[in-house]
Every structure is written in C-alpha cells, then in structure tokens.
C-alpha cells in the first residue's frame, strides 16, 4: 500500500463534501508531476485530504483510492474550468482517480503543527516551493499524522 496527500481548496471541494458524496473523481490536476504521482496510485492506497486556502490550512481527513488513474474527461469539456485544448480523447494528457471517504479528523491538523514534527521534516508538502496538488507520503509520515489526529 502507498500513501498520498491531495490538496483542495475547501470552498471548492472539502472533506465535508466528500463525506456527503461518499466518493468522487479527483479531476482537474494540470501539473505533469502531480499527474504522474496520480498515475502511481493503486486501488486501496490511503490519501490525506488537505485543505488549502482556508484557516487553518492543513490535513482534514483521510480518503481511499477506489479506482486507478484514467483519462480526465474535464480536459475535453470547453465549458469546464479545467479544459485543455491540447488534450484529446485520442491523446489524453491528464488523468484522474476516484477516491472514497474514510474519515474526517476531529480538527484540521494545521500546517504549522505539521512543521513542528521532526519526523515530518522531509514531507513533500513541507518543502519550500512545493505547490503540487498530489504528493506521495511515506508510511512513517502517515503514521505520525494519524497519531496527531487522535
């Protein structure tokens, strides 16, 4: 099993939205490195759901990958905010995965708290300049964050 972190602005799609919907497709990723990480996701992998652009910024809960990557159809929809004219059905550039709700933490674990944890110093989300919406998380990091959440 692998572990991941996905970011979403809470006012666009939050952990509460996922809890209500039970599952969703994770679309709109338009960065090649983040897309490549998504292509590595396997069914059953666990995913931290990270709220960006809110107060506090941080990890709000856990989801699970329920389908592996497949072409992101929003790239072909001219009316969608994630439309990309370079991506076609014949040669798709972008992928998405489906995720299901696992749990919401009692409180968001703030970015400031994550930064205090020495065991998380190498975590991608804490690296300067990392703005990727999908990043890998190692098992030790996942376990530390799960312990903080309790």
UniProtKB/TrEMBL annotation:
The keyword Phosphoprotein applies. The keyword Magnesium does not apply. Keywords: Phosphoprotein. Gene3D superfamilies: ph1033 like domains. Residues 2-147 form the EVE domain. It holds the Pfam family EVE. PANTHER family: THYMOCYTE NUCLEAR PROTEIN 1 (PTHR14087:SF7). This is EVE domain-containing protein. It comes from Candidatus Zambryskibacteria bacterium CG10_big_fil_rev_8_21_14_0_10_42_12.
């Amino acid at each position: 099993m692998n572990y991941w972190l996905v970011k979403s602005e809470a006012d666009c799609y939050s952990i509460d939205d996922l809890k209500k919907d039970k599952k969703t497709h994770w679309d709109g990723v338009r960065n090649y490195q983040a897309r490549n990480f998504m292509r590595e996701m396997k069914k059953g992998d666990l995913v931290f759901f990270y709220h960006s652009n809110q107060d506090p910024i941080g990890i709000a809960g856990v989801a699970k990958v329920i389908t592996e990557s497949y072409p992101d159809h929003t790239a072909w929809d001219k009316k969608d905010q994630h439309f990309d004219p370079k991506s076609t059905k014949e040669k798709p550039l972008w992928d998405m995965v489906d995720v299901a709700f696992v749990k919401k933490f009692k409180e968001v674990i703030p970015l400031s708290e994550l930064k205090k944890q020495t065991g998380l110093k190498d975590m991608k989300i804490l690296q300067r300049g990392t703005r990727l919406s999908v990043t890998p998380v190692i098992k030790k990091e996942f376990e530390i964050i799960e312990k903080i959440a309790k």
